[in-house]
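Technical note accompanying the year-one report. For the benefit of new consortium partners, we illustrate the data format agreed upon in the data management plan: each record pairs a sequence with a structure-token string. No post-processing was applied to the example shown here.
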Amino acid sequence: MKREYFGTDGVRGPYGGLVVNEAFAFRLGRAAGEWAGGRGRVVIGRDTRASGESLVRAVAAGLTAAGLEPVSLGVLPTPAVAGAVRSEGAVLGVVVTASHNPAADNGIKFFAGTGIKLTDADEARIEQLLPPPAVVEGADMVVREDTEAVARYIAAACALLPTQALAGWKIVLDTANGATALTSPAVLRELGAAVVALGDAPDGKNINDGLGSEHPEKLAAKVLATGARLGIAHDGDGDRCILCDECGRVLDGDEVLALLAVHALGKGTLASGTLVVTVQSNLGVDAAVTAAGGRVVRTAVGDRYVIERMLSEGAKLGGESSGHIICAEIAPTGDGLVAALKVLEVMIETGRPLSELRKVLVKFPQATRNLKVRQRRELSACVSLAAAISALEKELGSQGRVLVRFSGTEAKLRLLVEGPTESVVRAGIERLVTAAEGDLEVM
């Protein structure tokens, strides 16, 4: 069943637009409450966007109208809300966030009582239950607050490493002026690290503004300038982790996943011997994990699809090249802080710097391009682009691959080409861009 409002990761868009506004948040909350059965507790978290508080009140009013009991956890990373759903016995979790999007955007995503994101079918059913547009009831309501949620999350994260395990470490931490601005530095400092902070002063308007996992340049520069042992960057809601080694070189999610998977395989602790990634991940991940005795399974883009496949495969490690890393033995969804702590654990156990550990992954040459488009179309209707894709795939054969898709959260066409040499992939991506410009209104 096709969904109209939900994308790859919840409902998202410009705040005050046709979808992300208080009236729709009320309707969505009411529909989600009915889907959840109309009884029970709901935990709600948000990131640091100025529009967050108003949207929390609106969605809470909708949930209340459906018979549920909303409780606000305040500003809290998305994975902390997912964990709270399970630990607090809630029937539903809600996060008001637009993740890595600019501050002018916002959104709403849901977690089931298991702490796992809803399926496509669940979201389609919620859309069917949307009440007709009406005046928002109780949008000025006072939502009951749980003021201890942040402390519980910090305590649980600190328990993942031994006391003072990071004593003597200097770590640069970029929290993107987002939901992790309080939690991640508190955990690293409690574990003994000296933290050099970036993006730790949210003002409601500066989330993801030139900082965070989408913009790791300042992180890399600060690591070099301060002589830090590594750098860690999150996105606005804290479910991503991008790292930087002591040489100022950035590691993406593929490198983190390969590092963790190969280390676990060496210890015999990788569940089912399986790593789950998406079609976006570099083919070098498959080569590294296979060489270490494991296997790689791929899914569609989206961390919830990764999680669904992990459950079916009995896997405990999976994620995306964007930095969503799911360590299912610890958290039910991607958690940027947990992922960073797991890498720190490997560094401690091996005594090796990140610049050496990352060498486990040798990437295939890859080129990517994101084209902002005025309107999405079915790829099958893009005649020139479809022909270019087909021709390039035939030329590459088993030596590479082509991936073309529309973003699930933005009006962007994402292009990827992998191949045997840099020149081949650069030429390939330019051919796709030219074809796309012939079929779509590229902005």
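Partners are asked to follow this layout when depositing records. The chain has 14 helices and 18 strands.
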